[in-house]
């Protein structure tokens, strides 16, 4: 009976130790999960900030392009027709690709 009791106590202690080890492993995994989750949230926030900055920069650049286009359109009314036609043809061919004079 005492041997059986000693064996049961030993088994109980082993099980308790295994439970504690498993609980420590679960805790470590939960900590890693929380760390990764926090990292992902930070990345998402940074991505949104970058998107906002890029969209703002694009809006600024588009506004500047629009202002230049308005100025070009205004100046086109003041030049002779052959030069205007040549400008329009060159503009269609090279716009946004490369400068005309290199």
- Head-to-tail CA distance between termini: 102 Å
What kind of assembly state do the chains in view correspond to? Answer: single chain
Structural class: mainly alpha
**Spans of at least 5 consecutive residues with low confidence:** none
How would you describe this structure to a colleague?
Helix content is 87%, strand content 0%. With 102 residues, it is mainly α. The chain has one domain. The radius of gyration is 36 Å and the shape is rod-shaped. It starts with a helix and ends in an 8-residue tail after the last helix.
Q: What's a concise summary of this model?
A:
This protein is mostly helical and about 100 residues long. It is built from 2 helices and no strands.
Features:
2 helices, 102 residues, 87% helix, rod-shaped, mainly alpha
Chart the SSEs and their pairings.
Blueprint: H1 2-76, H2 81-94
